[in-house]
Amino acid sequence: MRPRFVPGDTVRVRQAEPLGHCRTPGFVRGHSGRIERVLDEFPNPEERAYGRPGLPKVRLYRVRFSQPGLWPDYDGPAGDTLDVEIYEHWLEPAGP
Amino acid sequence: MASADLHPTAHDHDHDHDHEATPPPDEGWGGYGPELETAVRELLIEKGLITADAVRRTVEAIESTTPAVGGRLVARAWVDPAFRARLLADGSAAARELGVDMGTTRLLVVENTPDEHNLIVCTLCSCYPRAVLGLPPAWYKSFAYRSRAVREPRAVLAEFGTVLPEGVSVRVHDSTADMRYMVLPLRPAGTEGWSEEALAALPTRDSMIGVTDLRGALALAGTKDEGEDKSRTGR
Amino acid sequence: MRGFHDLGGLSAGPVDRDEKEPALWEKRTHALLMLLSDPQQEVMSVDELRAGIETLGEAEYGRLTYYERWITSIANTLVRKGVLSVDELGRKRAEVAAREGGGA
């Protein structure tokens, strides 16, 4: 499947609280960032964790966040960033 | 989803904090780990799912993989701009060019520049580029590193003795999914003309995780003769 | 509500610069996981390992060492999937414990 997002897109990480295994850390949920890189598709680890094949594969992205935007008490310059790998189904488009 | 809940049973261990209830972290619960590992391994061998030989060979492979592997990638990238570009585009493919067995690892190499310093962490567990750096240090897997590296990277760097020059941005990478990360450190000044073999000895594990850089590297590398021996092979 | 393992951003003290080498049993644990998750002949996946660790519960997660969590998760997962039966694992553990020197 073609990637839904391209580098430079602004995306928001969905604020969801599933129980069970996922690889989207809590500290980025609800936050916005930019697609830094489009990676491959991989079997979905959320399903693989329970012995299922995790198909169809899900697209993985690297999303770049501004550190001061993530942490109210961030001690560092505005240009510091944090890149996190996030699967497509956790992302939704955000404003420009 | 219920698990078999196999773990040291409550009656075996006293959880009272007032006396030595918690075992020293490096010893764990006495024989629990070693005995369970032996039991699982022997059953799997008896069932033909693995062989003792495969276990032995895999342990040997784990033990023989050291940060020197990553050091070779770094040195080649320093001397060969085309290789550097390939390394940054697809770390695993580039590593395979140098004969590294990457297995299923998807390596993503991030490059330090005069303006950017990179730091690697896995907040959710302890994902690490084992194929090029060997097993991670225990501190990389610790609560404090995993929790603080994303939130206060500069304070963590300072604990490792790393203070970045003015104007350098910090880029943290949380390996949350299928990629594994390695930092390509900046080549230290004063290494012009060094052989690739001599250069490969400079990158430290910590510089390829990103908690340190190589600015002090020459002071540790030994005599000038080693670096300036241009008769050594190296491309 | 985050999983206990989801540590990014939580408060903590200084990083303890622990450089202790893994013991042989710990390297074997790692080797077991690599062999069991080999795509050519997958018995369990790294994802199952992680889920098994994440559901140990907060007290166990904090009390067990890193590789104790691994081997516990591996054993639990293999039992859950029917690769090992509860009975045979119990018998084998007792046999190992009874040997001179334990699980060498």
Q: Can you give a write-up of this model?
A:
The complex is a heterotrimer of chains A (96), B (235) and C (104). Chain A has a single domain (10-93), classed as Roll (SH3 type barrels), CATH 2.30.30. With 96 residues, chain A is mainly beta. The longest helix of chain A has 4 residues, at 45-48. Chain A contains 2 helices and 5 strands. Chain A has a 5-stranded antiparallel β-sheet with strand order 4-3-2-1-5. Residues 1-5, 7-28 and 223-235 of chain B have low confidence and may be disordered. In chain B, the strands form 2 sheets. Chain B has a two-stranded parallel ribbon with strand order 1-4. Chain B contains 12 helices and 4 strands, in the order αααααββαααββαααα. Chain B is mainly alpha-helical and 235 residues long. Chain C has 104 residues and is mainly alpha-helical. Chain C contains 5 helices and no strands. Chain C has helices at 24-36, 46-54, 58-63, 66-80, 86-98. Chains in contact: A-B, A-C, B-C. The interface between B and C is large, with 58 and 65 residues.
The assigned CATH architecture of chain C is Orthogonal Bundle
**Strand percent estimate of chain C:** under 5%
* Terminus-to-terminus distance of chain C: 41 Å
Which fold name fills CATH's third level, the topology of the largest domain in chain B?
A: Nitrile Hydratase, Chain A
Instruction: Give the ordered list of helices and strands of chain C.
Output: HHHHH
Report the CATH superfamily of chain C. Nitrile hydratase, beta subunit
Class of secondary structure makeup of chain C: mainly alpha
The major pleated sheet of chain C works out as: none
**Count of alpha/pi helices of chain B:** 12
Q: What is the helix fraction of residues of chain B, given as a range?
A: 40-55%
Task: Could you tell me the CATH topology label of chain C.
Answer: Cyclin A, domain 1
Approximate shape of chain C: globular
Q: What's the oligomerization state?
A: heterotrimer
Number of domains of chain C: 1
Q: What strand line-up does the widest sheet of chain B have?
A: 1-4
Strands of chain B, count: 4
Please work out how many helical segments of chain C DSSP would assign. 5
* Biggest β-sheet strands, sense, barrel of chain B: 2 strands, parallel
Question: What does the radius of gyration of chain B come to?
Answer: 21 Å
The CATH architecture classification of the largest domain in chain B is Alpha-Beta Complex
Radius of gyration of chain C: 16 Å
